[in-house]
Amino acid sequence: MPPTVPERQTVAQVRSLGGPIEFVDDYPVQKPGMNEVLARVLYTGVCQSDLHTARGTAAGADGKPITAIKLPHIGGHEGIGRIVSLGPNLPSESEPEIRIGSLVGIRFASRICRRCEFCLGGREQYCQRQTNHLHHEDGAFQEYICLDAGYLTILPQDVDPVVMGPVLCAGLTAYKAVLNAELEIGNWLVVIGAGGGLGQFAVQYGLAKGARVLGIDAGPTKKNLVEDFGARFLDFKIPKYLVDEVHAITGGGAHAVVVTAGSSAAFAAAADMLRIGGTMCCSGIPPGGGHIETTIAAIVIKGLKIKGNLTGSLKECLEAVDLVMRGVVKPKILVRPFRDLPRIYEELERGDVAGRIVLRIGGDQTMEAKATSRL
After folding, report:
1. Is 213 helix (H, G, I), strand (E, B) or coil?
2. Is this model's pTM higher than 0.85 or not?
3. How far is CA 280 from the centre of its chain?
């Protein structure tokens, strides 16, 4: 017997950008259409992008605030759900893995065109006709969600739903940044924002690549987190000239710097931390767009490379998931109740969160106990 699906559900929504989060307990549950599935959301991570979008401060490529956002806005794009209902043309013989009970991911991208140069080239995150769960469609901050079966993130059925949600965005983005860094074994990788939800993944994926990693962040909690992973740590709030410290530790500068923090200050000296031929990978997006404060002369004379990375492809996502499933990468997560979301946004704004916070939507504490025992 298929699970019983209610007609109403609880969602966390923002009626206008910059407005307060409201919990609505009678929001309609969508029915899956053609080529769609309905999933019950179990857990979802809370990303800085969710915060900036809800506050109306998320920046587009032009540096201006993104305003073309569905209202009321329901965020959440690091979710794990279980399929509870199928559209009228499913299941199909060609895709037997799409079935009731399957675990699926709720990622940033929701639908893609599958025809453009980016989709055909395995870089579908840049599809100009895509829709996503941040701006165009309701995300994972709800109990039930409709997903496109044609671009479905089907997960291994023994995946840990408590831990895996943040891998689908923070983990994937960090994994892609580390790939872009083109590291060789023994190279030095500097991660700015190393103790945050995105930075913790960059540190661990860098170590998994055989790099020596130096994390930069602030405070003893984040220091302990980064050092527990096996990396070195610099506290940017302790008075010293960070660039000189980085050059001294790395013997002339890092081979790559990954900037995961969403603040302009984090980018200010990042390029100066690089050695000749080094690569700067930009992942965090500051409100207002931000600027890289380095000279063209430095870029030319030192042969520096600057790369941006917007999440990654579905293939790269499953690679990032695999490293977590095999225990190579062990994310630091803290599970909180769904209705803690407003308080969590405040903690993110203050920079108080070490690791990643995951909301319990439809999961249970039995799952969480099992997840804790494996970390």
Report:
1. strand
2. yes
3. 19
